[in-house]
């Protein structure tokens, strides 16, 4: 064990064991820092594990929390407020995952560690912490995003000394984290390689590509060639570069070469492990990143033990260092780890912030209120109406737009439909669907919808979004229900140019009340506007892969082609 010393941080004295070596069952050692009280007396421990580097997390001791769009915001400082953890009577243990930072071994792939599951390493790490003289044997976990995913991977292994989890902003369905509706998202590149306000992984020469390490060379070459033949990939320099030169881009290379869902993603999907988790779990997520809310809700539904779900307010990006949900977390851990009867389990299991009224809807499941899915139809002259279009295709000409690739333009074309001002408040909570009848003149395109609350004289507010790559339009009919579509994303089926197809986009979960005088606005494009009210709140790399070919889109909304939104209106 390393020597114990004290440090000064924010006017307080904190004790720290630096560069602890934590042995794994196969002989590999991980490194960790343990921050606690200056007297070094045994206390419960909160464990944080990630590949982002423990030294980066230590900046929480010296850097005030930064909100987006601060240039100091760093998306990878996610292990929590060290000083607050210590003040609350816990030891904060921050470790580097196998193959990253100062830890030994190899890290192969996104949730794989040299053939050893990260859950197994987390089990060994937690049990080692519980045996240390500065820990009283009671252990929880801490941290958001990747740290949050690690919590589920750890708990599924059922380490005996793990008492409870509090997961904020976790990522669960790894395919849906990287391909929204089949459209590649750039944020995983930022989080892994360090771009646009993210420091990225604490890379070593032992972080390796799972594809290059485990897949035959012929298959890798075939996958690379197929991706390079994709016009969208051809038009994006970073993807072309990474496919030709994967060294030092291993984790990103793996994502690029796996554009379909399947075994590669499912074997590292924490949702699949949720039913094995027995300890109490509180899941928390903020609105504005609908795909992450989707995975959080699915995880909540699969958990079998004591559980809570809180969906907070927009905007989506929390401060870094992460501090927002510490009050909830310590109430949870004081109850389940310290045994304090603070009433946390007397409150409803599900609490959802409703934009508009800025109140919480509470219940025992999501949605927390009864809902019924009702349609709003796309009509002529950019209208949204509860009544369907009565004119046929000869009288109701389709709406259309031509989008040139972003290699030749910086203008993103957007179609817009809006309701009349609401006369009374309208509340919606849950998932939805957009049924669009579209004709395109290419084998593929993106369909991106965003939904806004607009009021006269006020900034508009993003409510939620929907994404679908046209070639991924197949539905999983066993899982799909009204207002709740599911796509398997296991293959691409090229579109026949000039044919009108029905595309069903999943509208990600949201909760909002549109007040009297407000309008609901639906916007459709095939790329994202480069700058608007929403994107200013996100890191620069939080965009999706644009379409790399010129495409003409015609959206039909006549009596034969009832393009519509199916939305979750609360009853009563």
Task: Summarize the helices and strands and which ones pair or pack.
Elements: E1 4-9, E2 12-23, E3 29-37, E4 43-50, H1 54-57, H2 82-87, E5 91-96, E6 107-108, E7 112-113, E8 116-117, H3 118-130, E9 135-141, H4 146-155, E10 162-168, H5 174-178, E11 179-180, E12 183-184, H6 187-194, E13 207-208, H7 210-214, H8 217-228, H9 231-234, H10 237-244, H11 250-256, H12 263-266, E14 281-286, H13 290-302, E15 307-312, H14 326-336, E16 350-354, E17 359-363, E18 371-379, E19 383-385, E20 399-403, E21 415-418, E22 426-440, E23 446-454, E24 461-469, E25 500-514, E26 519-525, E27 551-556, E28 564-570
Parallel strand pairs: 4-5, 4-9, 6-13, 9-10, 10-14, 14-15, 15-16
Antiparallel strand pairs: 1-2, 2-3, 3-5, 7-8, 11-12, 16-17, 18-19, 18-28, 20-27, 21-26, 22-25, 22-27, 22-28, 23-24, 23-26
Helix pairs in contact: 3-4
3D structure, described in words:
The protein has 572 residues and is of the alpha+beta class. The radius of gyration is 24 Å and the shape is globular. The model has no long low-confidence stretch (mean pLDDT 93). The longest helix has 13 residues, at 118-130. Helix 3 packs across helix 4 (146-155). Strand 18 (371-379) and strand 19 (383-385) form a beta hairpin. The protein contains 14 helices and 28 strands. Residues 330-566 form the Xaa-Pro dipeptidyl-peptidase C-terminal domain. It comes from Microterricola pindariensis. This is X-Pro dipeptidyl-peptidase.
């Amino acid at each position: 064990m390393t020597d114990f010393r004290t440090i000064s941080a924010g006017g307080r004295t904190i004790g720290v064991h630096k560069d602890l070596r934590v042995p794994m069952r196969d002989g590999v050692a991980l490194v960790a820092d343990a921050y606690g009280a200056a007297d070094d007396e045994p206390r419960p421990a909160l464990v944080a594990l990630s590949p982002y580097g423990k030294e980066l997390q230590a900046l929480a001791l010296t850097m005030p929390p930064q909100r987006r769009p601060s240039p100091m915001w760093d998306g990878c400082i996610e292990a929590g407020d060290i000083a607050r953890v210590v003040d609350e009577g816990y030891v904060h243990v921050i470790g580097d995952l196998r193959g990253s930072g100062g830890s030994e071994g190899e890290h192969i792939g996104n949730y794989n560690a040299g053939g050893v599951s990260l859950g197994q390493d987390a089990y060994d790490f937690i049990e080692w912490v519980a045996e240390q003289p500065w820990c009283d044997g009671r252990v929880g976990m801490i941290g958001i995003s990747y740290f949050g995913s690690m919590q589920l991977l750890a708990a599924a292994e059922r380490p005996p000394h793990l008492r409870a989890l509090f997961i904020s902003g976790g990522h669960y369905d790894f395919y849906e984290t990287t391909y929204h509706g089949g459209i590649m998202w750039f944020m995983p590149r930022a989080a892994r390689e360090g771009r646009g306000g993210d420091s990225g992984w604490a890379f070593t020469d032992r972080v390796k590509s799972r594809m290059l390490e485990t897949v035959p060379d012929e298959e890798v070459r075939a996958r690379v060639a197929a991706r390079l033949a994709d016009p969208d990939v051809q038009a994006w320099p970073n993807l072309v570069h990474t496919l030709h030169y994967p060294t030092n881009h291993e984790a990103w290379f793996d994502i690029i070469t796996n554009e379909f869902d399947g075994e590669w993603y499912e074997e590292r999907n924490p949702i699949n492990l949720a039913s094995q988790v027995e300890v109490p779990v509180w899941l928390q997520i903020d609105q504005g990143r609908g795909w992450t809310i989707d995975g959080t809700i699915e995880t909540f539904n699969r958990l079998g033990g004591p559980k809570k779900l809180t969906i907070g307010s927009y905007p989506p990006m929390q401060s870094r260092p992460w501090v927002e949900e510490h009050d909830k977390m310590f109430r949870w851990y004081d109850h389940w780890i310290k045994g304090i009867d603070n009433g946390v389990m007397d409150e409803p299991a599900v609490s959802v912030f409703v934009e508009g009224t800025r109140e919480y809807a509470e219940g025992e499941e999501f949605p927390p209120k009864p809902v019924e899915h009702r349609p709003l139809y796309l009509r002529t002259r950019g209208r949204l109406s509860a009544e369907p279009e009565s004119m046929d295709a000869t009288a109701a000409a389709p709406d259309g737009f031509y989008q040139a690739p972003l290699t030749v333009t910086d203008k993103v074309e957007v179609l817009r439909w809006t309701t009349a001002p609401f006369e009374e408040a309208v509340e919606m909570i849950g998932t939805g669907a957009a049924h669009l009848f579209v004709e395109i003149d290419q084998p593929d395109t993106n369909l991106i919808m965003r939904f806004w609350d607009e009021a006269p004289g006020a900034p508009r507010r993003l409510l939620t979004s929907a994404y679908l790559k046209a070639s991924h339009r197949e539905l999983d009919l066993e899982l799909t229900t009204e207002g709740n579509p599911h796509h398997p994303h296991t293959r691409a089926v090229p579109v026949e140019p000039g044919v009108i197809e029905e595309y069903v986009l999943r509208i990600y979960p949201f909760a909002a009340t549109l007040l009297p005088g407000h309008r609901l606005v639906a916007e459709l494009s095939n790329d994202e506007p480069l700058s608007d009210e929403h994107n200013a709140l996100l890191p620069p790399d939080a965009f999706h892969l644009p379409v790399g070919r010129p495409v003409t889109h015609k959206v039909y909304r006549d009596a034969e082609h009832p393009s519509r939104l199916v939305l979750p209106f609360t009853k009563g």
